[in-house]
Amino acid sequence: MIITKTEKYTLLKPDENSIDLFFESFKTKYSKFEGEHLILDFSEKINTKLKDLLLFLELSSQHRENGTSFVLICKGIDIDEIPEEINVVPTITEAVDILEMDAIERDLGF
Q1: H helices then E strands: how many in the chain?
Q2: Which pLDDT tens digit goes with each residue over 64-109?
Q3: How does pLDDT run across 6-22, given as a tens digit for each residue?
Q4: Where are the beta strands (DSSP E) in the chain?
Q5: How far apart are CA 76 and CA 58, in angstroms?
Q6: Is the CB of residue 46 less than 8 Å from the CB of residue 78?
Q7: Number of domains in the chain
Q8: I want to staple 74 with a disulfide (CB 3.0 to 4.6 A). Which of 16, 20, 23, 42 is the partner?
Q9: Could you tell me which InterPro entries the record lists for this protein (predicted)?
Q10: In this structure, are residues 33 and 5 in contact, taking their beta carbons and an 8 Å threshold?
Q11: Residue in 105, 87, 82 with CA at minimum distance from that of residue 38
């Protein structure tokens, strides 16, 4: 797992061969990221499927309940098939936009 921390968020990129292996690694290290806004970047992974992203659904919901953002970057996924409880966008720019929109919603009490 490649970890890049910025002032606003933590970016995680898998260096594992599969999303399943990355998910297992991420789950074991998840407690280190509590309280941080997370972006998981799968944009360089080819053939990422919706079922792979849904592995993160529960953690995404838990993370958001704690008042922090959780965004996945993945290209080639039909946005209409993705549950509303998980944020999936195709680029890092859109992921940062989601973080900003989440911050505004939290400030407004949503």
Answers
A1: 4, 5
A2: 888 899 999 998 888 888 888 889 999 999 999 999 998 888 888 7
A3: 999 999 999 888 888 89
A4: 2-5, 10-13, 38-41, 70-73, 87-89
A5: 22
A6: no
A7: 1
A8: 42
A9: STAS_dom_sf
A10: no
A11: 87
Query: Strand ranges (DSSP E) for 20-105?
Result: 38-41, 70-73, 87-89
CATH number at residue 98: 3.30.750.24
Both tokens of 85, joined, read: 């409880």
Range of the domain at 68: 2-108
Residue 16 has what pLDDT?
82
68 to each of 47, 63, 83, 99, how far by Cα in Å? 28, 6, 18, 9
* CB 71, CB 90: distance < 8 Å: no
105's tokens: 């919603």
Residue in the structure block whose two tokens are 């910025």: 6
Note if the pTM is more than 0.85. yes
